[in-house]
Amino acid sequence: MKPRNLLVIFGDQLSMDMASLKAADPAQDHVLMVEVAAEAETVNHHKQKLVFFFAAMRHFRDELRAAGWSVDYVTLDAPENTGTFEGEIARAVERLSPDRLVFTAPSEWRVERMVGTLENALDIPVKTLEDTRFLCGRNEFAAWAEGRRGLRMEYFYREMRRKTGLLMNDDKPEGGRWNFDAENRKPAGTDLFMPRPPRIKPDQTTADVITMVGETFDTHCGKLKGFGYAVTRADAEKCLDYFISHALPLFGDYQDAMLTGEPYLYHSVLSPYINVGLLDPLDVCRRAEEAYKKGRAPLNAVEGFIRQIIGWREYVRGIYWLKMPDYVDANHLEAKRPLPDFYWTAETEMACLKAAIGQTMELAYAHHIQRLMITGNFALLAGINPKEVHEWYLGVYVDALEWVELPNTLGMSQFADGGLLGSKPYAASANYINKMSDYCSGCRFRADRKVGEDACPFNALYWHFLDRNRDRIGSNARLRNTYSTWDRMHADTRADYLAAAERFLASL
Ligand SMILES: Cc1cc2nc3c(=O)[nH]c(=O)nc-3n(C[C@H](O)[C@H](O)[C@H](O)COP(=O)(O)OP(=O)(O)OC[C@H]3O[C@@H](n4cnc5c(N)ncnc54)[C@H](O)[C@@H]3O)c2cc1C
């Protein structure tokens, strides 16, 4: 039967609540889902990330069919697959002759631009509906940002608290404060019980995808063996249940901590599921709030967790759509150095980088502080080209979609947008890493040595970064004390730092 509407569902739209599905009728409309090589090759995507997306898509196809939808699904290895969205949508229009194409707004600029070409190219009406999984619509964010001098997340977050009523008593924040971050900076001890998020055993559908990815994307980064992510709603719910009961209570306390051999600590590892639609962000927050109300998790943990989702996650999406397409080329600090090879191999003597990159290649996961204060901090201090840094983060993490990864990388981590997203660069010397982790105790370099053979390179790099960027960030009020410390140092000490950093950078 010729469908009335052909609904195109992308790989990060795996929810029955997608606006296009909700507005449609399975008796008259038809779904199209396609696996395309062009998307898998945009950057060097980790093998487990490719498995995650393709396996979750195939399971969602089955869920749709079980719910009565007709689904045309094109696998990557189908001989007729053209390898691009445009090609596959054109073939489907030819095959099915629908009256109209219907989309839920794509999450990424590149895909939205592609959708914008279809009406003319295929001579068919195209309708695009807003993605209602986000709390703050794109226009709503633009209206919030309009005329503001600074776009600070904290103020946006308060609006989202009011809008959702999460942790609110009428118009007052629960506990009398909006933000409990000051209580969330404890370093973890090795004696703590560490929860481990459930690893899900692959079923036959996932096993087939693992084989396909192993054969087709052999040269891509990361380990394929040991894939254990949830790829269905039911399994993602199990991961959420586990997090709420086992990790959430200490999420706040140890949010910034890092420990050797503990890749997750008390983090939720829910970002991949939220980002592709297996979990709804607001539901996740309501579950956390419920744990607080029942006395099963403290306020500092629950507020901190909810802030990440209705605050940071929504805010970075707003920034992405406000600033694209130019944002991707931002390079305020004019950083030009190529990404060192050890970002792919983890072959470095620096224990913190080895740990963060090693687990990234093993699991396609690192938690926020590892991303920001280890790999991100190093790239910032060493002056690595932010576009190369962006492409690395976009490739290696299972949760990486450009709309969320790009503002985090370019804005928060690399200060490439000149302070639009963060009020100062997240730059730190070995002291911070030593305080928040146990990496330094097993490292060949010493955190307390400033220069010399065994001094941690983060120390000299930190001062080199500040010195060489003084024209660009020297007037930042939040760096005034740091620059005064630098200026008060003996000239020989400063020269030693700069020379040590130069030697290290030349060796990269
Ligand atoms: C350089 C860099 C790159 C990043 N790239 C990505 C990315 O590609 N995809 C991605 O989802 N997150 C990204 N983040 C944000 C954050 O690091 C991850 O969301 C988080 O580590 C995911 O692990 P988790 O689910 O255990 O998070 P938790 O620590 O348990 O946090 C709970 C949830 O809050 C949300 N969240 C937390 N921090 C952020 C943030 N800064 N921005 C947006 N959402 C946030 C996520 O949905 C996460 O699942 C990046 C951060 C940095 C510094």
Task: Lay out the secondary structure.
Elements: E1 5-8, H1 19-22, E2 30-34, H2 37-40, H3 47-66, E3 70-74, H4 85-96, E4 100-104, H5 109-122, E5 126-129, H6 138-145, H7 153-164, E6 168-169, E7 172-173, H8 204-216, H9 233-251, H10 271-276, H11 281-293, H12 299-323, H13 342-345, H14 351-363, H15 368-382, H16 386-396, H17 402-413, H18 430-436, H19 457-468, H20 470-473, H21 480-488, H22 491-506
Parallel strand pairs: 1-2, 1-4, 2-3, 4-5
Antiparallel strand pairs: 6-7
Bound molecules: flavin-adenine dinucleotide.
Keywords:
mainly alpha; Rossmann fold; Serine Threonine Protein Phosphatase 5, Tetratricopeptide repeat; 3 domains; 5-stranded parallel β-sheet; binds flavin-adenine dinucleotide
**Overall pLDDT level:** 96
Number of strands: 7
Q: How many helices in DSSP terms?
A: 22
Q: End-to-end span in angstroms?
A: 61 Å
What is the second-level CATH architecture of the largest domain? Answer: Alpha Horseshoe
Output the structural class: mainly alpha
- Dominant shape: globular
As for the number of domains, it is 3
Return the CATH class of the largest domain.
Mainly Alpha
CATH-defined fold name of the largest domain = Serine Threonine Protein Phosphatase 5, Tetratricopeptide repeat
Strand order of the largest sheet: 3-2-1-4-5
Secondary-structure element series: EHEHHEHEHEHHEEHHHHHHHHHHHHHHH
Biggest sheet architecture: 5 strands, parallel
Rg: 24 Å
Strand content: 5-15%
Low-confidence stretches: none
Helix content: 40-55%
Bound molecules: flavin-adenine dinucleotide
Describe this structure in words.
This protein has helices at 19-22, 37-40, 47-66, 85-96, 109-122, 138-145, 153-164, 204-216, 233-251, 271-276, 281-293, 299-323, 342-345, 351-363, 368-382, 386-396, 402-413, 430-436, 457-468, 470-473, 480-488, 491-506; strands at residues 5-8, 30-34, 70-74, 100-104, 126-129, 168-169, 172-173. The mean pLDDT is 96. β4, α5 (109-122) and β5 (126-129) form a beta-alpha-beta unit. The protein starts with a strand and ends with a helix. It has three domains: 5-129, HUPs (Rossmann fold, 3-Layer(aba) Sandwich); 138-321, Alpha Horseshoe (Serine Threonine Protein Phosphatase 5, Tetratricopeptide repeat), CATH 1.25.40.80; 342-507, Orthogonal Bundle (DNA Cyclobutane Dipyrimidine Photolyase, subunit A, domain 3), CATH 1.10.579. Helices cover 50% and strands 5% of the residues. α3 (47-66) packs antiparallel against α8. It has a five-stranded parallel sheet with strand order 3-2-1-4-5, sandwiched between helices. The chain has a two-stranded antiparallel ribbon with strand order 6-7. The protein has 22 helices and seven strands. By secondary structure, it is mainly α. The chain binds flavin-adenine dinucleotide (FAD). Flavin-adenine dinucleotide (FAD) is lined by residues 267-271, 274-275, 305, 308-309, 312-313, 316, 367-368, 371-372, 376, 393, 397, 399-400, 404-405, 408-409, 412-413.
